[in-house]
Amino acid sequence: MIKVGSLFDVQYGHSLELNRLKVATPDKGVSFVSRKMGDNGVAAYVERLAGIEPRPAGDLTCALSGNGVLRAYPNRLT
Questions:
Q1: φ, ψ dihedrals at 52, nearest 5°
Q2: Considering only CA atoms, which of 30, 37, 38 is closest in space to residue 14?
Q3: Which of the residues in the chain have pLDDT under 70?
Q4: DSSP secondary structure of 33-70
Q5: Are the C-beta atoms of residues 35 and 17 closer than 8 Å to each other?
Q6: What residues pair up with 62 in beta bridges, in sequence order?
Q7: CB-based contact 42:13 (threshold 8 Å)
Q8: Phi, psi angle pair for 32, to nearest 5°
Q9: Annotated domain spans of the chain
Q10: Tell me, what's the pLDDT at 63?
Q11: For the chain, what is the radius of gyration of the CA atoms?
Q12: Which end of the chain is more exposed for a tag (fewer CB within 10 A), N or C?
C-alpha cells in the first residue's frame, strides 16, 4: 500500500457550490469542475470570483464524497 500523499501534492480545493455561482459562457468563464461523471467533470462555466484563483491547468481534482468518489479530472485552462 502506498499513501496518495507520497505520489501527489494533496491539497483541499475551493469548496465552492455551483448553485451559489453565476453561470457564464465558455469564452467568458472558467470551468467549474465537480463530481459530475461526464464531460471530464466540467459541470458549467462560471464567472471568476474576486480573490479566488482557479486551479492551474493540469491539476487533478477529485471528489471525496457523493457520486464518483476519488474519480480524478484534469483541470483545463479556459
A1: -125, 115
A2: 30
A3: 37, 63-78
A4: E-S-SSGGGEEEEE---TT-PPPPTT-EEEBSSSTTBT
A5: no
A6: 72
A7: no
A8: -105, 105
A9: 14-48+55-78
A10: 65
A11: 13
A12: N
